[in-house]
Predict the structure.
Amino acid sequence: MMTDLYTRFVANVLFPLQEKVKHHDTVRVRREMESSQWWSRERIDALQLERLKRLLRDAGSHVPYYRELFAGLGFNPEGVRSVEDLQGLPFLTKAIIREHSDEMRADDAVGLARMNTGGSSGEPLIFFIGTERVTHDVAAKWRATRWWDVDIGDREVVVWGSPIELGTQDKVRMLRDRIMRTELLSAFEMSDARVDEFIARIRAARPKMLFGYPSAISHIAARAEKHDVRVDDLGVKVVFVTSERLYDHQRETIERVFGCPVANGYGGRDAGFIAHQCPAGSMHITAEDIVVEIVDPEGRVLPAGESGEIVVTHLASRGYPFIRYRTGDIGVISDVPCACGRGLPVLSEIQGRSTDFVVAMDGTVLHGLSLIYILRDIPAVKAFKVIQESVEHTRVQIVAGADFSSQDEDQIVGGLRRRLGAAVRVDVDRVERIPAERSGKFRYIVSHVGSGAHGHQERGCAAADR
C-alpha cells in the first residue's frame, strides 16, 4: 500500500490512540480480519460457527428476552452444530425490538450507546450497541477501505446528511476532522449554487477518496461535467458509496467524471457493516462478524442464487443481540468465489427501499433524508410517508402512537417548512397503516415535482449510515 508519511502517522499512531481512548480494540480486530479474509471458506465458516455459539450462549444466559425465548422453544445453545441451526429461532423485527427494548439488553452489558435509525424504512427504531459491536464495525470498514490502496489519514471528502454528523460540528469535531484530513459536505442541500461550491471545495481539497450517497455524488459529477469542470485530474483513487442502492448509470457517471472506480458498501446502523465491494467487483460479506440468510416471504431460507429478504445475525452484538434480524432489503448470495482470492462469501445482488430528492419552493434540491430525519426522531410517530404533491403542497401520512400530540404535529409541519419553504402547505394525515406501492415496494419519500436529473428516479436505500 502506497501512503505518505502523514497518512501512516494517522493510521498507525493517531487513529489507534483515539480508538484506545474509546476502549475500542479496533487495530487488533482489523489485523485479524486482514488475515482471515484470505482463509478458505471452510475455515471462515468454522470461525463463524464458533462465534455464533458463543453469542447464543451469552444471549441465553444474560439477555432476558432471549433467556425467555430459548426456554419457551426448548432451544439449547449448547446443541448448536451448524449455522443452519439458527433456523430453529424466530426472526427479530423492529416491532419486537420496540416492544422488548429493555429486555434485549444483556444484564452484564456496560457502555451501551443509544442509537436511532429507520431512515429509509419510515419506521424509527431505537436500539443500543456496545463497544464490541462498534469496534468490529469500524474494523470492517477500515479493512475494506484499505482494499483500495487508501487509508485513514488520506485526504477524504464526505458527502453526507446525517444529523449525527452535521449536528456535532463543534470545535473538537472540526479539529479531529482536520487532523484526519476529512472534509464534510452536507448532502441535504443540492441546489446548483451549492453543488458548484462542492465542486470547488473538492478541487481545492484534492482528496484521495470520496465517501457518500451515490445519488448525491453522481449529481455532483453530472454538474461538473455539464459545466466542463474537470475533477478527474485531482488524484482521487476511489469513490466509496453507501446508504442507497447504487444504480449502473450512477456508477458510470461517477467513474467517468472522477476518473476512478466506485466501491459500493451495504449495511446499516442496526444491522452493521454487512458487505463491501473489492477491486475485483464482488460485494464481500463481513463473514467473521455477520451471518447472512436469504429468506422467502414465508420465512424459508433460500439456497445460493435465489432472491429473498436479507436476514442478519451480528456476532459482535453481545450487549444487545441482533439475531436473525429482518433488514427488509432484498438480495442474492452467490456460490461463485471471487477472483480476488478472498474466502469471504459474496452478495451478488442487493436491492432496497426508496428515497427521492425533493424540491424546495426556492428551487433548492434536497435529499429525501432531510425530511426523513425530521419524522424519525419523533417517538410518537410509528411509521410515515411524505408525498410532495407540488412545490407548494406536501402531504405527510403518519401512523401515530397513543401519545401523539398537537406539539408533535407542529414539529412535523414546522420542520418540513424549514426545509421546503415557510409558505408550503403541509397536511398531516393520520392513517391506520402505510400501504405498499403497486410494485410491492415501500416508498417513504415520493416527489411529484420534476427536479432535473433526479425526477422520479427510484433510489433503493441499503440503509447504511456513515
Summary: Residues 285 and 452 are 36 Å apart (CA to CA). The domain at 19-135+268-353 is CATH 3.40.50.12780 (Rossmann fold).
